[in-house]
Design a protein that fits this description.
It contains five helices and four strands; from the N terminus they run E-E-E-E-H-H-H-H-H. It is of the alpha+beta class and 161 residues long. It folds into two domains: 77 residues, no CATH class; 64 residues, AhpD-like (Up-down Bundle), CATH 1.20.1290.10.
Length: 161
């Protein structure tokens, strides 16, 4: 079993913070993640704020473009996670720009290619520069090691960044 954040489309099972096991089914993406166009977002709104509530058996799109159906008995657990994500991304001491750069650094450190694609595209559409994105990735590499940079470089090559 591979355990990552629910909704990333990378796992068949995940463990929630409350210890409940989440069952999901995964379908193939309609398009590769690098071909999914960035949504132009308000630069003052953090990347994941306003995630919709999860409904049982209603497909949701994961970061890598796959469609995920949530099993009825796990929707409540996923909604607890959605509430946590929304609260974490709400305006606070760290502005939206800082949170976007943190999301990139964390995605590099976790070596999550789908997350990187999503967060880099969102950062670019919010006016964050390529130099700022690379600096965030370099900081992550200092803590996570050079294998993390390999994933970042693959994403940059796909995005021609």
């Amino acid at each position: 079993m591979r355990v990552w954040a629910p909704g990333c489309g990378m796992q068949e099972n995940a463990i929630m913070a409350d210890g409940k096991k989440v069952k999901i089914s995964i379908s193939e993406p309609d398009e590769p993640a690098h071909k999914i166009k960035a949504v132009h977002r308000n630069p003052d709104v953090p990347c994941c704020e306003g995630m919709p509530e999860v409904e049982p058996d209603r497909p949701i799109q994961s970061l890598d473009g796959r469609h995920v159906r949530v099993a009825p008995d796990t929707a409540d657990s996923l909604n607890i996670f959605v509430d946590f994500v929304n609260a974490s991304n709400a305006p606070g001491a760290i502005d939206a720009r800082g949170k976007r750069l943190m999301a990139i650094a964390l995605s590099v450190a976790l070596r999550s290619k789908p997350s990187l694609l999503t967060h880099i595209q969102a950062a670019l559409s919010a006016g964050i520069t390529s130099a700022e994105i690379h600096e965030a990735a370099n900081l992550a590499t200092a803590f996570a090691g050079f294998p993390a940079m390999i994933v970042f470089r693959e994403v940059c090559a796909e995005l021609k960044l």
